[in-house]
Amino acid sequence: MFEKILIANRGEIALRVIHTCREMGIKTVAVYSDADKTAAHVIFSDEAVYLGPSEPSLSYLNMDALISAARQTGAEAIHPGYGFLSENHEFARRCQDEGLVFIGPPPEVIQALGDKITSRKIMLDGGVPVIPGLSRCEPDMAVLKEAARAIGYPILVKATAGGGGKGIRIVHGPEEMEEAVAQASSEAFNAFGNREVYIEKFFTRARHIEFQILADQYGHTIHLYERECSIQRRHQKIIEETPSLALSPELREEMGKAAVKAAKSARYANAGTVEFLLDEENRFYFLEINTRLQVEHPITEMTTGLDLVRLQIEIANGQKLSLKQGDIRPRGHALECRIYAEDPEKDFFPSPGTIRFMKEPGGPGIRIDSGIYQGFEVPVDYDPILAKLIVHAGTREEATAKMIKALQDYIILGVKTPIEFMMDVLNSRPFREGRVFTDFIPAHFSDWKPDRDLADVAVMAFLAHGQGKAGKKKASLGPEKALSPWDTLGNWKL
Amino acid sequence: MEYDFMVNREKLSVQAVISKGAVISKGPGNSEGHIQVQRENRSYEAEFVNVSDHQVLIHVDGKIFNAYVSRHGNIKTVILRGRSYEITDADLMEETSPGKKSFLNTASVVASPMPAVVIGILVKIGDRVEKGRGLIIVSAMKMETTLFAPFEGRVSGIHADIGDKVMPARILVDIEKD
């Protein structure tokens, strides 16, 4: 087994990897930028290496600095986490060339699956259903329009490279096609340096269902069942659950087999995620394979009782996967809420700042994967995820009630969070009835306003705050400066 | 006393009497004081304990409420049962920060809406700009926002460089009206 692993990431996912490494007796090397000098992942690692300025391209995306940090500390493997360089085939190849183990699939697999046209072709050849569309970049507008007519509008024009909602346009009729192709193409070129776009059918109402897969280096591949990730804002998942209410046992088995087939067709190794779109008639289509650990992996860990990071490390170390498909028996229901520093009342706008006070919920079946602590300044330079709250219970109803209670007990002061918003989502009828589709937030919560039922009590708390002994104690312990009546008056009115 | 609060930008007026110190505690904890609040025709009696700098225990009508409070400037954020209330004393705000409110409300300044990093400057000193012209691009947490000219005029000052970290109060571009 490896003696030391470098974690090429930050925040909660870096800490998640550190937890497992510690349990396995593996030393960890954290890396950090200027903005993260006192970040939680740095504090809790065994060693930490400075990469460079806060700007991601100079630090967490800086391959030279990462490789040299691994060299300098004697780390034998690199765990990329998610985001940053986790799906970068050049980095995976660099690691290989330098004799470092990249904890993830081989570079050629990352490269093939990173190109949407190539991965479509791999799936078509492997007999995995793909979204009706054109599996090539077609420059002739007449041919394109004819293909679109055959598929049926609305159509999605999609960049073959990249992701993150960039280089994508929805086309409602042939008259919009030319402009949409031009825009998507130029956006894709600016973002990923590749102009190629292709078209596929767009589903206005669909579910996003993904299957966790595990494959060792010797072709043994299994799946760890599904995750339902339909609740999204700005094309980013915010609440995930497993199992999905939309799948019958037969459909689940069929999709699981398709996921394994997809992974095998791509010669996949390590942990990965096969994403499917499920339309309203319960037909499923391959979307893409994410060649990394997903943000929402903990819900699978809760129901299967497995540690995915441990399995990733073992597979990368060349061990055989001893688990058989029949060994995987998910239990109960798990939910995850992503806690971002953002303002749900202002269109989920980022809300950076200092964590002034923090108190995490407790109780059975509650897990928190967090990257923050009291006093931490949330940097403006990176993704605003602070923590993930995960619960596990016997049924969906129990898990939902547990999550609402846990959200109520999760206190974060100093930045805005969507905690309240999520409480209302989980309490809502469409969620309780399982009517979750990718348009859930715009359809049911576009004009959300928080409940203000306890405003009177809040006002009492405002008045009482700092009026008692705790306040006095602080004042008496205070520095040299004598307090003037104006300081001690506080909010009293005379 | 009469208080005019702003609770999440909505006005809330109450009559309140606070008495500190020796109170015979009816609830859990050693009460540090007593509050009586009246709003419209409802009236509440509460006892309170400041458990820590950020936690206030309030005992009202037989119910226990744990309130978590942080203060920044004139604003206190109070979290109660998972819900967050931003409260300011409206009178206090006007007394202590004269003009600040109107200054921020006029939407006539070019400033970032949040702490952010400047990633693009689209104009230079001397440029004539129309209302709505993009001036500066800032980025916070992977989200880019363009700041637009609030009115027509000539750019007379630029107070930021690419890579600068800027706060919401900082004016980034001066525009002189003709």
Question: What does this molecule look like?
Answer:
The complex is a heterodimer of chains A (494) and B (178). Chain A is an alpha+beta fold. Chain A folds into four domains: 4-103, Rossmann fold (3-Layer(aba) Sandwich); 132-201, ATP-grasp fold, A domain (Dna Ligase, domain 1, 2-Layer Sandwich); 207-444, D-amino Acid Aminotransferase, Chain A, domain 1 (2-Layer Sandwich); 460-489, no CATH class. Helices cover 35% and strands 24% of the residues of chain A. In chain A, the strands form six sheets. An eight-stranded antiparallel sheet of chain A has the order 13-12-9-10-11-14-21-19, with helices on both faces. Chain A has a five-stranded parallel sheet with strand order 3-2-1-4-5. Chain A has a three-stranded antiparallel sheet with strand order 7-6-8, covered by helices on one side. The model of chain A is unreliable at 470-494 (pLDDT under 50). Chain B is mainly beta. Chain B folds into two domains: 2-96, no CATH class; 108-176, OB fold (Dihydrolipoamide Acetyltransferase, E2P), CATH 2.40.50.100. Helices cover 7% and strands 54% of the residues of chain B. Chain B has two helices and 15 strands. Chain B has helices at residues 90-96, 100-105; strands spanning 2-7, 10-20, 33-39, 42-52, 55-60, 63-72, 75-80, 83-89, 116-121, 128-129, 134-140, 143-148, 153-158, 165-166, 173-176. In chain B, strands 1-2-3-4-5-6-7-8 form an eight-stranded antiparallel β-barrel. In chain B, strands 12-11-9-14 form a four-stranded antiparallel sheet, with no helix packed on it. Chain B has a three-stranded antiparallel sheet with strand order 10-13-15, with no helix packed on it. The longest helix of chain B has 7 residues, at 90-96. The termini of chain B are far apart. Classes of the chains: A alpha+beta (494), B mainly beta (178). At the A-B interface, strand 16, helix 13, helix 16 and helix 17 of A face strand 1, strand 2, strand 3, strand 4 and strand 5 of B.
